[in-house]
Amino acid sequence: MASNSGNMKGFYREKKPTTAKKSSKKSPSNAATLGSTAAQTPALVSDGGKPDLKDEYDEKETLLRQFDLNMAYGPCIGITRLARWERAQRLGLNPQPEIQSLLKSGNVQTESLWGGRI
Amino acid sequence: MATRMERVQCSYGSLDETFEIRKEMFHGQQYSQIYFARLHLMRTLLYSLVPHWKPNFPVCTVLELEEDKECVIVGTLYKHMKLKPCILDEYSKQKSVVPLVKPHNFMHSDDYLVLEDESGRVKLSGNIIPPSEYVTGIVVALLGKESGAGDFLVQDVLDAGLPPQIEFPLKSGEDKYVVLVSGLRVGSSTFNPLQFQLLVDHITGHLGDEKDKSIASKIVRVVFAGNLVEIPQRLLNGQTLASTDLTIMSDPIRELDILLSQIAAGLPLDIMPGHSDPANFSLPQQSLHGCLFPGSSAYNTFRSCTNPHCFELDNVRFLGTSGQNVDDLEKYSDAKDKLEFMERTLRWRHLAPTAPNTLGCFPYTERDPFFIESCPHVYFVGNQDKFETRIIKGLEGQLVRLICVPKFSETGVAVMLNLRDLECHALSFGTNSAHNNAE
């Protein structure tokens, strides 16, 4: 069996699909995840092989990321930042009011820093 | 000659709202959220109890533990189980090291408990907290100290205890009965139509002498605690069904509808979905739709309820499930009887601690519907092997009647409870000549 497959390898030329080809085949930007209606945000490592690490983010995002990582308000995965803030408020955990005003203002990311990556 | 008898009336209030899934939506949330909600809720409660329990010890989080410092920690228990089936085992290359000895129970002497909070987790040691009695998902307060090995040596355990109870209504002196039935399994091989017809005739007052009828007239409600029908497994394979198979599939429900409408014509009845019923799988199971029961749902006495089901009859509070919570506890822990499992869930103040770990559960984000806020007067669990009952008392004078309702299709036993004094007895029906109809 093993020798057989060796022969086959010799017969057909092995060919590795290149990454460029792969990316043209499927586009994960509109791949649906279970139960999610929104389009998926790009994965940590996108298809081009370039890591999608947004190193530059402003002060607002820094504050929001600190809020995301504060375990006192519960897990931040699978819940929007605003919903998480409101839950903390309802549970009497006194989250910072600035966070809410930031989130209400609009031009910030609504999902947590892991949003769409898990 | 026959005298006309009026059926006794009773006030009814449904408290199923907490178990109804209305506004909750699934948008990719994970189960960590429900553990967070549970821990937050229970920890607030336990923190209020700790000053009375151990006034002289500091309370800290898992991260703040120091070696040999005696303190109180509060967190969620996780039971590490060697034999617990894991979905990933299917993909692992190694064969399972330990074969399952008893497939219905996954306990092993190597099991150990871990306590978790947001900050971290710590392995528990000492024989104060035996792993066999506890399961994953309970929130407790522990007194102890960190030992050299990095374990937390437990010296004392505090669980939330029986919740506060509303006052038991003043004795009216009038007998009022509630009948609890479970596991009818219409459509299964064990279902005996004659046996159930005897029950129907008995509670609607069509059977027996004047004395039997006067007792029957005092039955104020019948509750069916799950597993009403059984649909043949071979039809549930996801394939398109032939029209004959469609009829076979809906036959049990149609038959049940005919039987239930006989009861609904005479007295109020509640039905709860169970494991084998055509409802959602995960707890809380939502009520079966009325259109499944076109005959009986036409009566205003017919109520389709959730599982778990909570209601009040003349201010006597009932709480019950179709049995999944206790059946799951039995797989992952140990007790001398089913009633002990029931008692533990009340003392832990949690109806189904193993959800979502080993019991299907809706992924709530903000609340834990299984938290028992108020202590019921009657706590019943359906689909058990035999009829068992006991009264337990709490430290603050709470009094709870625990009832294991047996599977009717296998035992022919229903349970009759008196609302006046919470006394209860079995109603046993047999169709063999060796038995009598109603005892």
From TrEMBL, chain A:
It comes from Phaseolus coccineus. Pfam families: DNA_pol_delta_4 (PF04081). One of its GO terms (biological process) is DNA-templated DNA replication. One of its GO terms (cellular component) is delta DNA polymerase complex. InterPro entries: DNA_pol_delta_4. This is DNA polymerase delta subunit 4. Residues 1-55 are annotated as: Disordered. One of its GO terms (molecular function) is DNA-directed DNA polymerase activity.
From TrEMBL, chain B:
It catalyses: DNA(n) + a 2'-deoxyribonucleoside 5'-triphosphate = DNA(n+1) + diphosphate. Its EC number is 2.7.7.7. Residues 178-388 form the DNA polymerase alpha/delta/epsilon subunit B domain. GO terms for biological process: DNA strand elongation involved in DNA replication; mitotic DNA replication. GO terms for molecular function: DNA binding; DNA-directed DNA polymerase activity. One of its GO terms (cellular component) is delta DNA polymerase complex. Its main location: nucleus. Residues 30-157 form the DNA polymerase delta subunit OB-fold domain. Keywords: DNA replication, DNA-directed DNA polymerase, Nucleotidyltransferase, Nucleus, Transferase. It is an enzyme of class 2 (transferase). It is found in: Nucleus. The function of the small subunit is not yet clear. Heterodimer with subunits of 125 kDa and 50 kDa. Belongs to the DNA polymerase delta/II small subunit family. This is DNA polymerase delta small subunit.
